[in-house]
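As a next step, we paired sequence with structure tokens, yielding the entry below.
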Amino acid sequence: MVGNGFHVRNMFPSNNLGQRLSPFILLDLAGPTFYPGTDTPRGVGEHPHRGFETVTLVYQGKVSHRDSGGNAGLIGPGDVQWMTAASGVVHEEKHEREFAKEGGTLQMAQLWVNLPKKDKMSPPSYQDIGARQIPSVAVDGGEVRVIAGEYGDTRGPAKTFTPVNFWDVRLSGGHEIDLKVPAGQNTGVVVFEGRASVNGSDEIQDAQMVWLDTNGELVSIKAVEDSKLLLLSGTPLDEPIASHGPFVMNTEAEIHQAIKDYQSGKMGHLD
């Protein structure tokens, strides 16, 4: 459990893939988990981040967000929240009040994207990307929702610091699609629900992933049954990483400074 409201399966970094996944540094799949009704919304209270971005995609349920930069939002099915912590932000994520009161199933994914050294101390920012803003490209047997990056001539609405593709793929059982990503990018396909194979791999199922070699551009996905998948690809950052909990920087000295800045209130607090 993350806090008391997010039952997650951690895809990485707990499997020790490390720098091979750069610029991606964490992926949690939450749920699907049913939560009974309550008058006190579950979730994660005030906590800091510095040096990277958090990307949250909701499949089921509703999640509310607020941060020390004065941003607040509600994300429901199909919506995305793209928060750039950069120099530092304090925020909380909880079940939306009415959703919490009624109870229901929560299912979502959260991805952490590293920032280049030159951008780590940039001002924090926040992108609230509603489902209607995300273009969907019809493919044989399904669709590709382009959240970030480009799929053919379709560009996603998310603004990124480095080249990143983040696609929400739905594919019916028995269908196969070929997706093209830039050569040299670190690329992975994650199954959120269903069963599929990637570039002829053994079948992968719920909460499993295939990480591909950086040679080549073709990603062929065959759905064995109706599947929800995420495709991640990004240009790797050839920079050192120092991390401690919610802080991801380049040196241990920068980590110590981040801790001091948070404790002294320089990242702000929530009222």
About this structure: The mean pLDDT is 95. The chain has two helices and 24 strands. The radius of gyration is 18 Å.
